[in-house]
Design a protein that fits this description.
Blueprint: E1 2-7, E2 11-18, E3 21-29, H1 36-47, E4 57-62, H2 65-79, E5 84-85, H3 103-115, E6 120-125, E7 128-134, E8 140-147, H4 149-159, H5 179-205, E9 214-218, H6 222-225, E10 234-235, H7 239-252
Parallel strand pairs: 1-4, 4-5, 6-9, 9-10
Antiparallel strand pairs: 1-2, 2-3, 6-7, 7-8
Helix pairs in contact: 1-2, 3-7
InterPro entries: ATPase_NBD, Type_III_PanK
Catalytic activity: (R)-pantothenate + ATP = (R)-4'-phosphopantothenate + ADP + H(+)
Family: Belongs to the type III pantothenate kinase family.
């Protein structure tokens, strides 16, 4: 079993992965105060209920550079294996952008190669809401980045004295009649409209000769937002971890097809 870890700005998602897919998944808040020891203790606590005695390997995707080395050391401590860290040397496509692309978007693009025909656009509803466009060859053309759904709501509640935190729940009518209904409408329908609108704008800028792009939706809030998207995206909650698994296999030189090896 391989331990896959995707560290975002807000949460650290992990999964125990075997041929065929995830055996278990878990998460813990990303702690900016972690060192190698405290991170190892946090990981061991989260993983303990799953009873894994021996790991075959591990891989890490991180968008928090200040913590990457500490988490890498922690993973070695927990698994006894040197982690494969996702980087451009172990992805299966080119990155055609002027500036570097975050590891989360690289993992999503790698996962998309196994899920849908190219070209494609991957929308990820995380701390940031990101859109990653890939051409027919699977190469990353470029990205768009917006504030995440939860981040936007937190900022709204923090700045508007009459508005309070709400639960992320399926919204009612778009025209809300209570404060909670109005906020749920704006947050959830607004996120769906953002996905639809950005997909259409990005698709219009892509090469029409390559055909219409597929749309994949991932991220923590994707299952809640997807039903309200007019563009009917493919829902893939484990997309980043699947992509990370493919990068792990490529780095290890394994071509068994496990994890959708390209």
């Amino acid at each position: 079993m391989v331990l896959l870890v995707d560290m975002g700005n807000t949460r650290l998602n992990m999964a125990g992965w075997e041929e065929g897919g995830p055996v278990f998944s878990a998460e813990t808040p990303t702690d900016r105060g972690w060192n190698a020891g405290s991170c190892a203790a946090a990981l061991a606590k989260v993983l303990a209920p799953f009873g894994v005695v021996q790991w075959d390997g591990c891989a890490l995707s991180s968008v928090v550079p200040a913590l990457t080395d500490a988490v890498r050391q922690a993973l070695f401590s927990v698994t006894g294996k040197e982690p494969v860290v996702l980087e451009t040397s172990n992805i299966g496509f080119k990155v055609l952008t002027k500036d570097p692309v975050g590891a989360d978007m690289l993992a999503g693009a790698e996962g998309a190669l196994a899920r849908v025909p190219m070209p494609a656009i991957v929308a990820d509803l995380g701390t940031a809401t990101t859109f990653c466009a890939q051409n027919k060859a699977g190469d990353v053309l470029g990205v768009a980045i917006a504030p995440g759904v939860a981040l936007s709501l937190d900022a709204l509640v923090d700045r508007a004295s009459h508005l309070h935190a709400i639960a992320f729940e399926p919204p009612g009518p778009a025209i809300g009649t209570t404060t909670a209904e109005s906020m749920q409408s704006g947050v959830i329908y607004g996120a769906a409209c953002l996905v639809d609108g950005m997909f259409r704008r990005m698709a219009a800028e892509m090469d029409p000769a390559e055909g219409a792009p597929s749309l994949i939706l991932t991220g923590g809030l994707a299952p809640l937002v997807a039903p309200y998207c007019e563009t009917k995206p493919l829902l893939a909650p484990d997309l980043l971890l699947e992509g990370l698994c493919r990068c792990y296999l490529r780095a290890k030189g394994e071509d068994s097809g496990w994890g959708g090896q390209r």
